[in-house]
C-alpha cells in the first residue's frame, strides 16, 4: 500500500473555489469532534474539488465540494444514499460518509461531503507496471464486483436524476422510468427544450452569429432532435436489453475510481475500494457488462501512424478482453457474453449514450446527430 499523499493535475481552467480554510477547519472539527489541523487541495475537476483534511489525532478525512453550487440538492443526497446503500447491501468497500450538507447555509457557504479516506493506490497509476498475471487478476476481481452489484442491487425501474449535467435549468420528469427507451426519450426532449429556449442566444454569444442565421440553425437542430425521437419510436434499439430486473450502475467505473493494494513484497494485488458514485443510477445489464475502458479496442484511421508500443499494447488488450469475456460468461452466463458481442456489432446505444449522457456544445451535438441519422 502506498500512503504517499497524491496530488492530481487540475482537469479544467476554471478558478478554484473561494474557500476560507480556517472556516473549513472549524466546520470539520465541529462536525467530526476532532481537531482539524491541516487542509490540502488534492484535485480540482470539472464537477468537484477534493480536499484532504488532517487531524491532531485519528485518521485523515476527504472533503468533496461541488464546483457548481446551483446543482439540485437532491443530487448530493442521492450520492450519499447510494454509498450507504452499497455499504449496507454488498461487500464492496466504499468511503464511509461522516457528514454532509447539500445547502450553502453552512459556515463555509458550500455544499460538501466529508468522507473516509480509503487506503490504496488509484489503479490507473500502477496498471502499466503490472504483470499480465496481475492484470488478469484485477479484471477477474472487477467481474466479481460487477456480479455482486447485479446480485445484491436489483430494481424494477430505471432511475437517473442528473446524468445530463448542465441542462438542469430545463424542468423535466426525472424518473423512475420503466425502460431505457423512456429515459432516453426524456433526455432527448430535454435537449430539444433547451435549444428551443436558449439555442439562438447560445449561437449569438458563443459563435458571434447574426440573429437570422442563429434562428435558422437552431430550428434545424431542433428538427433533427425531433427526427431522432421519431426514428427511435419506430426502431427501438433498447428492446432486447430493457429487461428487468435492473441494477445499480456506477457510470464512471474507470481506473481512476478503483483503489488497489499492490504489495511489492509478494507482488499480489487486490481491489480495496471503489470511489466517486456521483452519477450512479439504476440501469440495465447491458450497461453493467462492459469491457473496462482502458482495455477497449482503439480504432485508428487508415492514415494514422501507430507506434510499435501502441501495437503491442493493443495486442495485449485484445488478450485481456478475451479473458474478461470468459470471466463474464463464467459468472453471468452466456447472456453476459452475448451482451459484449452485441456491443461490438451494434453501436446505436453507445452513440446515444455519447450524445445524451454528456453535455455537448451546439456544433458537437449537430455533428453527432448528423452521423447517427445518416448511419442508422
Automatic annotation (TrEMBL):
<protein>
    <submittedName>
        <fullName>Kinase-like domain-containing protein</fullName>
    </submittedName>
</protein>
<feature type="coiled-coil region">
    <location>
        <begin position="204"/>
        <end position="231"/>
    </location>
</feature>
<dbReference type="InterPro" id="IPR002575">
    <property type="entry name" value="Aminoglycoside_PTrfase"/>
</dbReference>
<dbReference type="GO" id="GO:0016301">
    <property type="term" value="F:kinase activity"/>
</dbReference>
<dbReference type="InterPro" id="IPR011009">
    <property type="entry name" value="Kinase-like_dom_sf"/>
</dbReference>
<keyword id="KW-0808">Transferase</keyword>
<keyword id="KW-0175">Coiled coil</keyword>
<keyword id="KW-0418">Kinase</keyword>
<feature type="domain" description="Aminoglycoside phosphotransferase">
    <location>
        <begin position="41"/>
        <end position="286"/>
    </location>
</feature>
<dbReference type="InterPro" id="IPR051678">
    <property type="entry name" value="AGP_Transferase"/>
</dbReference>
<dbReference type="Pfam" id="PF01636">
    <property type="entry name" value="APH"/>
</dbReference>
Amino acid at each position: 500500500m502506498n500512503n504517499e499523499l497524491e496530488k492530481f493535475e487540475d482537469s479544467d481552467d476554471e478558478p478554484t473555489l473561494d474557500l476560507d480554510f480556517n472556516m473549513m477547519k472549524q466546520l470539520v472539527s465541529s462536525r467530526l469532534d476532532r481537531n482539524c489541523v491541516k487542509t490540502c487541495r488534492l484535485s480540482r475537476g470539472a464537477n468537484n474539488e477534493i480536499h484532504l483534511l488532517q487531524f491532531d489525532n485519528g485518521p485523515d478525512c476527504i472533503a468533496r465540494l461541488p464546483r457548481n453550487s446551483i446543482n439540485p440538492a437532491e443530487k448530493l443526497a442521492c450520492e450519499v444514499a447510494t454509498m450507504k446503500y452499497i455499504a449496507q447491501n454488498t461487500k464492496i468497500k466504499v468511503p464511509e460518509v461522516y457528514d454532509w450538507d447539500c445547502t450553502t447555509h453552512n459556515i463555509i457557504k458550500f455544499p460538501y461531503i466529508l468522507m473516509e479516506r480509503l487506503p490504496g493506490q488509484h489503479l490507473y497509476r500502477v496498471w502499466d507496471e503490472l504483470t499480465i498475471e496481475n492484470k488478469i487478476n484485477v479484471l477477474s476481481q472487477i467481474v466479481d464486483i460487477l456480479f455482486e452489484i447485479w446480485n445484491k442491487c436489483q430494481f424494477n425501474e430505471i432511475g437517473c436524476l442528473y446524468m445530463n449535467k448542465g441542462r438542469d435549468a430545463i424542468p423535466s420528469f426525472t424518473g423512475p422510468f420503466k425502460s431505457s427507451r423512456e429515459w432516453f426519450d426524456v433526455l432527448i426532449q430535454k435537449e430539444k427544450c433547451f435549444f428551443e429556449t436558449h439555442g439562438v442566444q447560445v449561437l449569438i454569444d458563443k459563435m458571434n452569429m447574426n440573429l437570422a442565421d442563429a434562428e435558422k440553425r437552431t430550428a434545424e437542430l431542433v428538427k433533427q432532435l425531433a427526427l431522432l425521437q421519431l426514428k427511435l419510436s419506430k426502431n427501438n434499439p433498447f428492446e432486447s436489453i430493457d429487461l428487468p430486473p435492473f441494477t445499480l450502475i456506477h457510470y464512471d467505473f474507470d481506473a481512476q475510481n478503483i483503489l488497489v493494494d499492490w504489495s511489492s513484497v509478494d507482488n499480489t494485488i487486490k481491489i480495496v475500494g471503489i470511489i466517486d458514485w456521483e452519477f450512479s443510477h439504476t440501469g440495465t445489464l447491458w450497461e453493467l457488462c462492459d469491457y473496462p475502458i482502458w482495455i477497449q479496442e482503439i480504432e485508428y484511421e487508415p492514415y494514422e501512424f501507430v507506434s510499435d508500443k501502441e501495437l503491442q499494447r493493443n495486442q495485449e488488450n485484445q488478450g485481456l478482453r478475451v479473458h474478461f469475456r470468459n470471466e463474464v460468461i463464467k459468472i453471468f452466463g452466456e447472456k453476459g457474453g452475448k451482451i459484449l458481442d452485441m456491443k461490438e456489432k451494434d453501436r446505436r446505444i453507445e452513440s446515444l449514450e455519447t450524445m445524451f449522457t454528456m453535455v455537448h456544445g451546439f456544433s458537437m451535438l449537430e455533428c453527432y446527430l448528423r452521423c447517427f441519422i445518416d448511419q442508422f
